[in-house]
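Exam prep: given the inputs below (a chain plus 3-phosphoglyceric acid), describe the expected output before reading on.
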Amino acid sequence: MAIADTMPGDGGLTSLQVMRDAPVIPVIVLSQVAHAVPLARALVAGGIRMLEVTLRTPVALACIEAIARDVPEAVAGAGTVRSAGDAQAAAMAGAKFAVSPGYTHAVGKACRELGLPLLPGVATASEVMAAQEGGYLALKFFPAMQSGGVAMLKAWQGPFGDVTFCPTGGVSVANAGEFLGLANVACVGGSWLTPADAVAQGDWARITRLAREAAALMRAG
Ligand code: 3PG
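Solution:
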């Protein structure tokens, strides 16, 4: 049974709701806490509010805290969650969902216990089955382009007709439409909404434009 799809987290949010909120989940890498709030506001202004802040920098948790505190219109989640400890730290910082590059039962269990909706990463059929065993049917397909792209997702429609995917990795505004046209894709993930140079320069208007363009993408799933 798809526990994580039906069982709401603390805030009543499910993994599927995270995926269905907008066509794109931005994958965000922040090196300065001061950038977190204006970046989140810029994305929200463009119509994107589910924000994946990756735990790849020393300030990531502080950035999640700042967004959770100061940008109530945004829903900050933690990306690059690789352990139960990462999931706990993310929840403590106020993350409302978690995204992991792969799936382990330890991460799945921790997120279930924390009531933290999880989008676990999968790249093979066996990984889809492992995530399913953990109760997860709303999955990140990662790295999407390197793992077979649109053709792989089409092949999975047969055996995994009840699974919904968020392809991430090598996805951009140029190819997002192909993914979003698939019935088993609810959204895509990508870093293209938050270019490092725009963040460094504080070019929030550019990020709002990229978010607006992403929010307008059409989807079938
Ligand atoms: C990541 O985890 O870095 C994401 O897959 C982003 O990939 P992208 O930079 O190709 O969008």
